[in-house]
UniProtKB/TrEMBL annotation:
<dbReference type="GO" id="GO:0005789">
    <property type="term" value="C:endoplasmic reticulum membrane"/>
</dbReference>
<keyword id="KW-0472">Membrane</keyword>
<keyword id="KW-0949">S-adenosyl-L-methionine</keyword>
<feature type="transmembrane region" description="Helical">
    <location>
        <begin position="138"/>
        <end position="155"/>
    </location>
</feature>
<comment type="similarity">
    <text>Belongs to the class VI-like SAM-binding methyltransferase superfamily. Isoprenylcysteine carboxyl methyltransferase family.</text>
</comment>
<keyword id="KW-0489">Methyltransferase</keyword>
<keyword id="KW-1133">Transmembrane helix</keyword>
<dbReference type="InterPro" id="IPR025770">
    <property type="entry name" value="PPMT_MeTrfase"/>
</dbReference>
<feature type="transmembrane region" description="Helical">
    <location>
        <begin position="23"/>
        <end position="41"/>
    </location>
</feature>
<protein>
    <recommendedName>
        <fullName>Protein-S-isoprenylcysteine O-methyltransferase</fullName>
        <ecNumber>2.1.1.100</ecNumber>
    </recommendedName>
</protein>
<feature type="transmembrane region" description="Helical">
    <location>
        <begin position="198"/>
        <end position="226"/>
    </location>
</feature>
<dbReference type="InterPro" id="IPR007269">
    <property type="entry name" value="ICMT_MeTrfase"/>
</dbReference>
<dbReference type="GO" id="GO:0032259">
    <property type="term" value="P:methylation"/>
</dbReference>
<keyword id="KW-0256">Endoplasmic reticulum</keyword>
<dbReference type="Pfam" id="PF04140">
    <property type="entry name" value="ICMT"/>
</dbReference>
<keyword id="KW-0808">Transferase</keyword>
<dbReference type="GO" id="GO:0004671">
    <property type="term" value="F:protein C-terminal S-isoprenylcysteine carboxyl O-methyltransferase activity"/>
</dbReference>
Amino acid sequence: MFVISFFSASVLGYTSELWALTYWGPALYFCLLNFILRYFLKGFTYEVATRAALLGSVFATGLYFATFDNSFHIFGLYAMAISMFHFSEFFTVALTNPQTLTVDSFILNHSSQYWIAAVTSWLEAGVEYYFFPSMKSYFWLSHIGVVMCIVGELFRKVAMFTAKTNFNHHVQTVKKPDHRLVTNGVYSLCRHPSYVGWFYWSIGTQIILLNPVCVVIYTLVSWMFFNERIFAEEMFLISFFGKQYLEYQKRVSTGLPFIKGVVMDGVS
């Protein structure tokens, strides 16, 4: 519905009525869709449906703006990248580890720091677009960011499909009976492929927006976050799997630059 509404004018031609359809139509459709969902769905199913509908509308809006030949092009690419990431997180968990599936699997409420970082990137993009519009015209560089997001996204999702029930959005502090150490597939290339994918995806989003300041900030903050998280996670993994994990550490790196994880007795 959103795609048809946005692109109707380009197919049918521009009139005052179609202008209203193009720009007000999506808002009306979203209100109508929310009313239908609210009437027919309850509880968990409704919460999932509204979040999916919101992400779908963001993606459709991004797809529309991505057709522009001005600076709105990069904002459209960014909207598509971020909405697809959050939707694919939920969808992948639903396919690989459904017993852990909750509305939090969209990771839309990942943390306050996550949204502070997102809003900061929007502010930088808006300020630079207003004062230095030419900064947002290097589409070739923005497209490199798109490639980084796609590769990072795929790498993370392959890791989730490989780990299946052994993957969780939260660091596990208690070993479950069916928890096993995954060392095959992308886990034979690096110990934390899902973090590697997310790390480069986050930097890619800022390259899409052509945000020089946030590229640096996102790189540093993401590195510090994953450095701390990997250390905490590996402490538990060593307690879960002991020598098996230590031997795995000898063979495979974390995958992230200058992050070694837990170092014990000279073994990283």
